[in-house]
Specification:
The chain is an alpha+beta fold. It contains 14 helices and eleven strands. The chain folds into two domains: about 1-70 and about 80-210, Orthogonal Bundle (Arc Repressor Mutant, subunit A); about 250-440, no CATH class. The strands form three sheets. It has a six-stranded mixed beta sheet with strand order 4-5-6-7-10-11. Strands 1-3-2 form a three-stranded antiparallel beta sheet, with helices on both faces. The chain has a two-stranded antiparallel ribbon with strand order 8-9. Strand 4 and strand 5 (about 235-245) form a beta hairpin. The relative contact order is 0.09.
């Protein structure tokens, strides 16, 4: 397997072009498409339209319960008091710990608002003022700058070159830092804004923020724009990659959609993810992989694939799950979009029937399928439990569930094992009934043959045809006992006759001798 077919965090959309300054998916160049790298000619590609939907940043009314905006009046505490337990009077100031948190988060996500960083880094705080003040302190030291203002009015913050270098030192080597967002100016020296891409970037960061705040990993659990390289010259990028094993989601790929792309493009993403999941690992034997797939050996097929070498085991059947997070436009438009995606992408997530469907087995084999879940940022922020609530729907199901419930497969291997055992029991009962119906009956007493007697006769093969073979064991023993008694009686009678004859001869000889004398 060529090395360039694997996800390469170091060579993705954030890597600098050799003809441009560093670029990313939010700042297109002639080498990169707005959402994905330009595919080969045999791949359908629909260009992304600029954002026209409403802001994805929640309003004050959708803030988590018990938390308020920094701008709201404080009734019982001074304006400069930190969110400490009642009775404390500590005055809050930006700390080194908070500054490092913000720098690391901006290093991973590239752009974020104070609201998003608050939700992600300090979900226990009652407002975002602490995070805003930290950003201002970092701005004074030249580590961050304001990129733009979103439609909602929130400032979108990015790292400066100095802050980017410092964030790189703070991040673990296993976490890739996003590309530096350099300030671009037009001919009149005014900053150039990429409003559509900024809104999408804000939606991506908010998605990570609400999931992190709900207990799905930490800010270091995320990576953005991970490349999945395909052999036909296309690279599929994931908006977000989440790893939250403590929440029973070892890995998940997320695509954030602001209802601006054609549904066909979303289906194509699932097709390309499926193609990548089916890539063989280096040195894997394709014949063995094909044989395992043909024999429906389930998880054994994955032993020959590339993806288990790069992602942890999911703990469930199927490939790494893919989540589509929709936001923007109206609730009706988002719902229509989810339904159309479900209809058009059925082949990629539906799974295959297990063998033995005629025996009452309804379980589904998901080992060669992509688990696909959908949600809405508006639904998450409106739910009191946030992303931990029943705000996820697995394509192919009707009900809204928690994320782990949606990813589980109660109708997969677990159901198959139960149904297989039940089918085996019924099959054994049918076979036993059929065998019982064929069990021979004794022609003498009418009793059925015992298993031992039947097996003995079956072992005799074609020689089984004697009249005694039609008798059960006791009747056969009785028959042979009677024959033996008859033979013994005959022998006794013959012996008695022989004795009488001999005695008669002796008497006859004695009589003749007496007369001669």
């Amino acid at each position: 397997m060529p090395a360039d077919l694997t996800p390469d965090p170091a060579r993705d959309r954030h890597a600098p072009c050799d003809r441009h300054a560093p670029c990313d998916r939010h700042a297109p160049c002639d080498r990169h498409a707005p959402r994905d790298r330009r595919p080969s000619e045999d791949i359908d590609q629909v260009p992304q339209a600029p954002s026209t939907g409403p802001s994805i940043t929640p309003s004050t009314a959708t803030s988590p319960p018990g938390r308020i905006r920094a701008g709201q009046p404080r009734k019982s505490r001074p304006a400069d008091t930190f969110d400490n337990p009642p009775g404390t009077t500590q005055v809050w100031k930006p700390t080194g710990v908070r500054r490092k948190e913000v720098l690391r988060a901006l290093g991973i996500f590239q752009r974020a608002t104070a609201d998003q960083l608050w939700r992600m880094l300090r979900p226990a705080d009652r407002h975002d003022r602490c995070t805003r003040d930290t950003l201002k302190a970092l701005e004074k030291t030249g580590l961050v700058r304001e990129e733009t203002r979103l439609e909602s009015g929130h400032k979108l913050w990015v790292l400066t070159e100095k802050g980017h270098k410092e964030a790189k030192l703070l991040l673990p080597k296993s976490v890739r830092i996003s590309a530096l967002r350099k300030l671009r100016l037009d001919a009149k020296g005014r900053p150039v804004k990429d409003d559509g891409y900024d809104e999408h970037a804000a939606a991506v960061t908010l998605t990570a923020a609400v999931l992190t705040g709900a207990g799905f990993g930490t800010p270091l659990s995320w990576q953005t724009e991970i490349a999945h390289k395909l052999p036909y010259g296309y690279t599929q990028y994931a908006d977000l990659t989440m790893r939250a094993p403590d929440a029973r989601v070892p890995a998940m790929l997320l695509e954030v959609d602001r209802v601006t792309e054609p549904v066909d493009e979303l289906v194509d993403k699932l097709r390309r993810y499926t193609d990548w999941f089916e890539l063989l690992a280096p040195k894997a034997d394709p014949n063995k992989e094909m044989a395992a797939r043909y024999e429906q050996l389930g998880s054994k097929v994955q032993q020959f694939r590339l993806w288990p070498l790069l992602y942890p085991a999911t703990g469930r059947e199927g490939y790494v799950p893919v989540a589509f997070v929709f936001t923007g436009k109206t609730a009706e438009q988002r719902e229509s979009r989810m339904q159309r995606l479900e209809q058009a992408a059925h082949r990629y997530f539906a799974g295959e029937p297990y063998p033995g469907q005629g025996e009452g087995i309804t379980a589904v084999d998901y080992h060669q399928a992509v688990p696909v879940v959908v949600t809405e940022l508006e639904r998450i922020t409106a739910d009191p439990a946030g992303a931990a609530g029943k705000v996820w729907r697995r394509l192919g199901r009707e009900e809204w569930q928690t994320l782990t419930e949606a990813l589980d497969n109660p109708d997969g291997d677990r159901l198959y094992l139960v149904q297989w055992r039940e089918a085996k029991r019924r099959r054994e009962e049918r076979e036993a009934a059929k065998k019982e119906a064929q069990r021979p009956v004794c022609v003498q007493c009418g009793a059925k043959f015992t298993d031992e007697r039947w097996q003995y006769l079956l072992g005799r093969g074609r020689s089984w045809g004697d009249r005694t073979d039609k008798l059960c064991g006791p009747c056969r023993d009785e028959h042979f006992a009677r024959l033996e008694a008859e033979r013994a009686a005959r022998r006794e009678a013959e012996e008695a006759a022989e004795r009488e004859t001999a005695e008669a001869e002796v008497k006859k000889g004695r009589g003749l001798f007496g007369r001669r004398r």
